[in-house]
């Protein structure tokens, strides 16, 4: 079987929105009278975010889910196309070379889906295999990588993974709910794509994936489909649960490759929020500089759900040596991948 190697990456971001402007121009009134709302919103570690639906220009909080899904397709297609085209160009491949196209999203649905529509627009072959990874949340990029990696290794054909998330379409009605304040403070929009090729002599080889789900804590992070879009449930206990499992997951991942934590050159940690990064840093005994890329992505782009860890990997493109990518989401679920130089 061939090795599965990440050889190209691309991303696309909607217009930027400054965090303070978002608070002053919309969310201050949205959460008027909610104690601690401003402190939480401006203390989320986000300086700016990206939004296809800028709340300063339009208020989607009373839109029905059907209208939000129509908007999702309208906005996701050009962003996804740009991200995938950029990844293919970086890998030096044409759309006709792709054997599998996988799309991960938890923020919008349509049938035919993005996979079919984008494959047609990009000129991918009619015999293309496709995979839709839906509603897994922030960690979906890594099981997506595992799936496309297995295809590439088994079939010796290139594959593309696209993560496209438009959380700005799911702004919720005003409520005295601090979990909603946190969600609205953190989440952002982005599309990010990677190309995976068989046996390439450049890039990063997917050397292992480890997953852990603590089903006893399933109620701590939720993403519910409602009549008014998708609603996030986000308990402040999430970092504490993460702290119990991240060490053993990383140990298992590295042990399989005969490595130790000190052998890792880069840590691509999904920046679910400032406390998530703090917990991973402290539990793994990392220096602050080792999680700096995750902090930068959170500050400059916000939490873009499944696309975020791919943005962190792009931020670390110049890092040489083993890289561990990890992401977290509903379940509670942790996923980690080991990437080695090809």
UniProtKB/TrEMBL annotation:
Active-site residues, as the UniProt record annotates them: 138 (acyl-thioester intermediate)
Short name of one Pfam family: Chal_sti_synt_N
Keyword Translocase: no
Keywords, in A-Z order: Transferase
UniProt GO BP: polyketide biosynthetic process
Transferase in keyword set: yes
UniProt GO MF annotations: acyltransferase activity, transferring groups other than amino-acyl groups
Domain Chalcone/stilbene synthase N-terminal intervals: 67-196
CDD domains: CHS_like
Alphabetized InterPro entries for the sequence: Chalcone/stilbene_synt_C, Chalcone/stilbene_synt_N, Polyketide_synthase_type-III, Thiolase-like
Limits of the Chalcone/stilbene synthase C-terminal domain: 220-338
Homology family: Belongs to the thiolase-like superfamily. Chalcone/stilbene synthases family.
The protein's name: Predicted naringenin-chalcone synthase
The species this protein was found in: Blastococcus aggregatus
